[in-house]
Specification:
Distance between the termini: 27 Å
Structural class: mainly alpha
Shape: globular
Number of strands: 0
Helix content: over 70%
Length: 220
């Protein structure tokens, strides 16, 4: 009961903070959190395909976002964004991402990346995308290692799928999905020490601990 009260309070607080910041990415992430939590009983058996699809679409969206500026579809989507959010769809990230990716490709270091992120001069190396940041710093190997970490987490969650009524697990998985959505246009998980990055890693740690607890309990 205490956990449910804290959860409700946190959701309300999130709505207030997000409304104040008017962050479209954060709003989208929160919608995913609420969706996963609300339909957990139906989704928990398909958590691996859901997470794989989100990551695959995130990478596709990154390349799509770079290419559509100046095109007919890009102009249309920008008009829709201006109409409903009063913000341009293109915030400059497409130029930042394209520059970072081209730097890696032109350096012939696609496998291992360029290392220290501050080598990229724009915005002190912060690329506003987990996937672009991973590719820039660690190349394809860095992206592959990140996918391995996600695969391990997904496997642990799948092992606990029979506890579909556990509110703690539902909450942690829901926010885990929200973190993945947020990383499409941000990269706090690997870039810098901040409140958001600490909270994100704390959620991941609690999720893994929860899953391991259930697996251990089931084996006993």
């Amino acid at each position: 009961m205490i956990f449910r009260v804290i959860n409700i309070y946190s959701i309300i607080l999130l709505f207030i903070v997000i409304y104040d910041t008017n962050s479209r990415t954060t709003i989208l992430a929160l919608l995913f959190v609420l969706f996963i939590y609300s339909f957990w009983n139906k989704i928990c058996n398909y958590i691996k395909p859901v997470i794989i699809s989100i990551v695959a679409l995130s990478i596709l969206i990154t390349f799509f976002y770079i290419k559509i500026k100046g095109t007919e579809i890009g102009t249309y989507l920008n008009e829709v964004s201006l109409k409903y959010t009063d913000k341009s769809l293109f915030s400059g990230r497409q130029r930042l991402w394209e520059g970072a990716i081209n730097n890696v490709v032109d350096s012939d270091k696609v496998l291992l990346g360029l290392g220290n992120n501050v080598q990229f001069e724009l915005l002190n190396g912060y690329l506003h995308s987990l996937y672009v940041q991973l590719f820039y710093q660690g190349g394809l190997v860095g992206l592959l290692l990140f996918m391995c970490v996600l695969w391990i987490i997904m496997s642990l969650i799948k092992e606990t799928k029979n506890v579909s009524t556990d509110h703690r697990l539902k909450t942690l998985v829901s926010f885990f999905i929200g973190i993945l959505i947020l990383q499409v246009f941000e990269g706090q998980l690997i870039y810098s020490f901040s409140v958001i990055s600490v909270l994100s890693w704390l959620i991941l740690a609690l999720l893994v601990n929860k899953a391991l607890f259930y697996i251990k309990d089931q084996n006993v």
